[in-house]
Amino acid sequence: MKTSWQSLYDEIFACEKCELCRRIHNKVPGQGDIHARLMFIGEGPGADEDMQGMAFVGAAGQLLTKMIAAMGMTREEVYICNIVKCRPPQNRTPFPEEAAACLPYLREQVALVRPQVIVLLGATAAKTLLRPDFRITREHGQWEERKGVWLLPTYHPAALLRDESKKRDAWHDLQLVMAKLKDLEAQ
Ligand code: URA
């Protein structure tokens, strides 16, 4: 079912479907161009995101901004959100039940934005949206098409901050995204 942005955000702000909402400062629904051709989906808010109510504004977010700029775009031209809208305690990986509880909101976001391409940032996004046994190291950079939307898993920017040697592969993945957007534009 497709709702409006207002009712979707109202639902997210009122949500108590899992325990994550108990200890947060702010819900972090996501932000960006609601008509974007390109969407980025991360894992869940960290401390900075929780304080500001905005997705990807901390250190990983600053790297994401640079990655988007290297693709010739700005953050304002894409839509950025996460699997879960509430910060997990100590930045732990969201439990599958928490991701499942939050998934209907993400599905609505995708239905409203109708992006052509979605970049899945990291294993949590790929496991939640592709399959639970997804292995990011082995399977990043491989396209999957779902209901006319192209999904590409790549490394999470936080993983790139921890291990710079992954940046080369990540850049290769982002180049695939740029080429796909160009192809789709030409169609
Ligand atoms: N990591 C994420 O997955 N999402 C954010 O919004 C910030 C850090």
Describe the model.
There is one protein chain. This protein has 187 residues and is of the alpha/beta class. The protein is built from eight helices and six strands; from the N terminus they run H-E-E-H-H-E-H-E-H-H-E-E-H-H. Strands 1-3-2-4-6-5 form a six-stranded mixed beta sheet, with helices on both faces. Helix 1 packs antiparallel against helix 4. The chain is globular and about 45 Å long. It starts with a helix and ends with a helix. The model has no long low-confidence stretch (mean pLDDT 97).
> Strand percentage, roughly?
5-15%
* Radius of gyration (Å): 15 Å
Mean pLDDT: 97
Straight-line distance between termini: 28 Å
**Total strands:** 6
SSE topology string? HEEHHEHEHHEEHH
Helix vs. strand class: alpha/beta
Unique ligands: uracil
Strand order of the largest sheet: 1-3-2-4-6-5
Low-pLDDT stretches: none
The helical percent reads 40-55%
Count of DSSP helices?
Answer: 8
Shape: globular
Summarize the structure.
This protein is α/β, with parallel strands linked by helices and 187 residues long. It has eight helices and six strands, in the order H-E-E-H-H-E-H-E-H-H-E-E-H-H. Strands 1-3-2-4-6-5 form a six-stranded mixed sheet, with helices on both faces.
